[in-house]
Amino acid sequence: SGKFFVGGNWKCNGTKESISKLISDLNAAKLEPDVDVVVAPPFLYIDQVKNSITDRIEVSAQNSWVGKGGAFTGEISVEQLKDTGCKWVILGHSERRHIIGENDEFIGKKAAYALSQGVGVIACIGELLQEREAGKTFDVCFQQLKAYADAVPSWDNIVIAYEPVWAIGTGKVATPEQAQEVHVAVRDWLKKNVSAEVASKTRIIYGGSVNGSNCAELAKKEDIDGFLVGGASLKGPEFAVIVNSVT
Ligand code: 13P
User: Fold this and answer.
1) What's the CA angle centered on 228, arms 169 and 142, to 5 degrees?
2) pLDDT tens sequence for the chain (247 residues)
3) How many beta carbons lie within 10 A of that of residue 142, not counting itself?
4) Burial class of 237 by CB neighbour count within 10 A (0 to 12, 13 to 18, 19+)
5) Which ligand 1 atom lies nearest to the CA of residue 11?
6) At CA 117, angle to CA 91 and CA 98, rounded to 5?
7) Cβ neighbours around 137 below 10 Å, total
8) d(Cα 219, Cα 216) in Å, to the nearest integer?
9) In sequence order, which residues have a C-beta less than 8 Å from that of residue 120 and are 6 or more positions away?
10) How many other C-beta atoms lie within 10 A of the C-beta of residue 246?
């Protein structure tokens, strides 16, 4: 449902030099036309990326401040993201939830504020290994979804990224069946709790150890509408393979 969407989350990686090389590789890559392609550099490099990357690729931030900018030392506001040409922001990433300690309510507020300013939200959800093993995968994902749903006035500019924490940066990708099962559950949740229209229109992308070799199998699944890619997005040619896995 919806146009295939592939995001590259560069996380806290890169230097001016390595990013310049990555941009050249991305600019040179042949990308399937019918895919939304987005890269999310660290804040410091957004301007560099925006000024040198092809218009074919949109730019996202990896986080944003929860409200209007001002006296918030060390934060970056949505207004500033807009000023530098960011169309998207990744929110609720597991690294921010579990390492930095952001909670559902805070993330929901961030999402609502970004949307109010016209910036799209890549809204991450996903369970820890112990939660999966305890049979709580759906409960955890639904609770995280509810926090977004309670906070946002509209789902028009939201992409949901299902990223099981045990699959992130571990090389242990979810099987296509495991990912599909959760994506279907998320869509059902949206249908019951938001609307049938939002359920069918909202893109649900998968993240967690996606690479050039496993993307094709995942992309075949009906409810996998794209990917959020970490490590493999730092290599231009491999990221292009993932973009081009659209079926
Ligand atoms: P990896 O692709 O490195 O597992 O990271 C996934 C991720 O967290 C994307 O946001």
Assistant:
1) 90
2) 789 999 999 999 999 999 999 999 999 999 999 999 999 999 999 999 999 999 999 999 999 999 999 999 999 999 999 999 999 999 999 999 999 999 999 999 999 999 999 999 999 999 999 999 999 999 999 999 999 999 999 999 999 999 999 999 999 999 999 999 999 999 999 999 999 999 999 999 999 999 999 999 999 999 999 999 999 999 999 999 999 999 8
3) 18
4) exposed
5) 10
6) 15
7) 20
8) 5
9) 87, 88, 89, 114, 157, 158, 159
10) 19
The interface pTM score, or ipTM, of the predicted complex is 0.99
Catalytic residue among 93, 95, 127, 131: 93
C-alpha of residue 171 to centroid of ligand 1, in Å: 10
- Two tokens at 80? 């500033």
Q: How many CA atoms lie within 13 A of 227 on its CB side?
A: 32
In this structure, the residues whose C-beta lies within 6 A of any atom of ligand 1 are 9, 93, 163, 168-169, 207-210, 228-232
Q: How far is CA 32 from CA 6, 70, 227, in A?
A: 11, 41, 15
